[in-house]
UniProtKB/TrEMBL annotation:
The lineage of its organism: Eukaryota, Metazoa, Chordata, Craniata, Vertebrata. GO terms for cellular component: adherens junction; membrane. InterPro entries: Ig-like_dom_sf (IPR036179), Ig-like_fold (IPR013783), Ig_V-set (IPR013106), Nectin/Nectin-like (IPR051427). The gene is Nectin4. GO terms for biological process: heterophilic cell-cell adhesion via plasma membrane cell adhesion molecules; homophilic cell adhesion via plasma membrane adhesion molecules. The keyword Cell membrane does not apply. This is NECT4 protein.
Length: 93
């Protein structure tokens, strides 16, 4: 989870998340913003073999959510629409 333009606040994620094949898993991400900061976009990346990253989803305050194939229909925001400080997602199945 990568907040765009992140410079002063703190991104809180779990170093490791355990998932069970075929079940939903929550991937937490919280940004502790400094005063006067606003999160406008969060990009979720999947790190693959060799350290290469592929874009999984983009959460944008103005433009909504954009999920890449093959994750379309499988990525849900845990928090209600709106502020992106809590950008946890649920990856279904």
């Amino acid at each position: 989870c990568v907040p765009a333009g992140c410079q002063a606040g703190v991104v809180e994620v779990q170093r490791s998340v355990t998932a069970v094949l075929g079940q939903d898993v929550e991937l937490p991400c919280r940004y502790r913003a400094q005063e006067q900061e606003q999160v406008v976009q969060v990009t979720w990346l999947k790190r693959g073999p060799g350290g290469h990253s592929a874009k999984l989803a983009v959460l944008d305050l103005r433009h909504g959510e954009h999920v890449q194939e093959p994750y379309a229909g499988r990525v849900l925001r845990r928090a209600p629409q709106g502020a992106l400080e809590d950008s946890a997602i649920v990856l279904r199945n």
